[in-house]
Here is the input.
Amino acid sequence: MNRNEKILLSALRGRRTMRPPFWYMRQAGRYLPEYRELRARADGFLDFCLTPDLAVEATLQPIRRFAPDAAILFSDILVLPWALGQEVRFEEGTGPLLEAVTDTAGLAGLDGSDVEGRLAPVAETVSRLAAELPEAVALIGFAGAPWTVATYMVEGGGSRDFAAVKGWAYRDPDGFQALIDLLVQATVIYLRMQVAAGAEAIQIFDTWAGVLPEADFRRWVVAPTAAIVAALKAESPRVPVIGFPRGAGMLYEAYVRETGIDAVGLDTAVPPSWAAAALQPLVPVQGNLDPVRVVTGSDGMFAAAGRIVDALAGGAHVFNLGHGLIPTTPPENVTALSGFLRGLKKSP
Amino acid sequence: MNRNEKILLSALRGRRTMRPPFWYMRQAGRYLPEYRELRARADGFLDFCLTPDLAVEATLQPIRRFAPDAAILFSDILVLPWALGQEVRFEEGTGPLLEAVTDTAGLAGLDGSDVEGRLAPVAETVSRLAAELPEAVALIGFAGAPWTVATYMVEGGGSRDFAAVKGWAYRDPDGFQALIDLLVQATVIYLRMQVAAGAEAIQIFDTWAGVLPEADFRRWVVAPTAAIVAALKAESPRVPVIGFPRGAGMLYEAYVRETGIDAVGLDTAVPPSWAAAALQPLVPVQGNLDPVRVVTGSDGMFAAAGRIVDALAGGAHVFNLGHGLIPTTPPENVTALSGFLRGLKKSP
Here is the structure.
């Protein structure tokens, strides 16, 4: 093991580490009082994400409190549709609202020619973080996967049945492919920009990977992700890419085998013992404590975390949650969990 | 094969049938103009479910239009909390709203002593349907699984993160167990009543089975379902019970092996080829066309349905959707799909 290598990067490169490195999805966010105070300084959430002073500070807040092994850029997956020219708003309480793009005619209104220019503030945030982070803390950049970003772009926000986005994909697969291709290209530009600015690992969030039948999963989840991974690896072979196909169920293994990702994030429902047998021989795994366990805390939280660590001790493992931290999480529970994880040791 | 046995029951008893029998989850509902007309005759949705004249007619409407191989009782899984004394309302557009029960103190306000009395109208609906249905059409009764019903009872409605119900289960598993036990008892009473009134098969809907980690899945999904199945089988060994643990992912197999259910419903994301190898040797399987395929219709619908039928042709299969029909479904697409399924033949 390279003695100077950050523990998160060691694990993502497939090494068993002395303890599993840890970070938490949504470790920056509304459950922290200092975040709520900071958030009040910008009007819109998009402005907040695109103001480096604020995004840097939001990213650093949980690092100061919990000393996790990684920081993840504070941003949102929907800055990409915004950079393509789609109208994106965040309403308090109701989630994101987008001017829906539902067909090839709508696609004509999008413009992928200035992703770098429009997202330059994100590059600035990443480079300032790279300079300011404590030495041992790795910096993770991220983007939404094309399928998941497309669900918001086509549905115009969140959805229960995904009838609009699947409807387009089923009715007119070639037209929908054009949207996905545009997203692949823009995502590659956006992630290369993050790597150039100092991101040391990348996570691709595919929050809605689990709603597709198998053939469509391969076309709209696996293939676009594989294209992004190939493009990133061609330029930056040493930057690990973590894929998070939430809800993929028994298609997790196909996702790992067919996308070329370097590590895989497990959602809460994936049995760690199954992941140890089926996935960990292929790639390092990351996950997967139920975020509600961090709301309830106490012995139950430590016991559940310990079961995950034990089940995945035979290979490379990054400890994380199975989904993002919940706004009602008591920060002291995150402090306690971080102490617990910091105290773990296993034979190297 | 018993020549007089209904094709649905043959398949649910493990026999390969000449063609897969079919029915559709939410085959009665808002996508049908005659349903919307009928629905307008009752004020509240609960009143609608509990008025036998209306519930019988709603159940029969899709039978007349599509001649599926089964009718499913028109009702809602939330009649059970209502029968336990919880306040339940259905608001147009926002889904169900319940007076949330979040702890042991709240449990004291529930009363399981008159489930049969309060749900007597459902028994009347079932017995009238048993008399009125065409000879070849099987009658399916149903209930929500305790875990899924509990999510609505504790969250007070739908949820995104299930923080309230999981919070109770994690913080106070013994207290939450008391709620689950009450639901198991009430569900057994309710389903026995349906069988006594003429239901020939039962489906247990566990819509939110997929949000739990493995250990909690075993305790809150598998164990209560196993208890219900055992109680039903003790009295009515010939009535098949279909379990539908939506989203269970790689825990589908444990669910099948450990609950004792007679058949299993597959959600849209389950690969049929995987189900053919892992589940179909154990029990008949039911599913799993994406309901959005019935919205888009056309060649893509037939091709997707054909792939499922082919993949599951080696064993007992009931054709269905992977989730309920969507309100925007054109009824003529259901007509076309039903014709397609009716025309299938395979060597017996």
Summary: Residues 173-197 of chain A form the longest helix (25 residues).
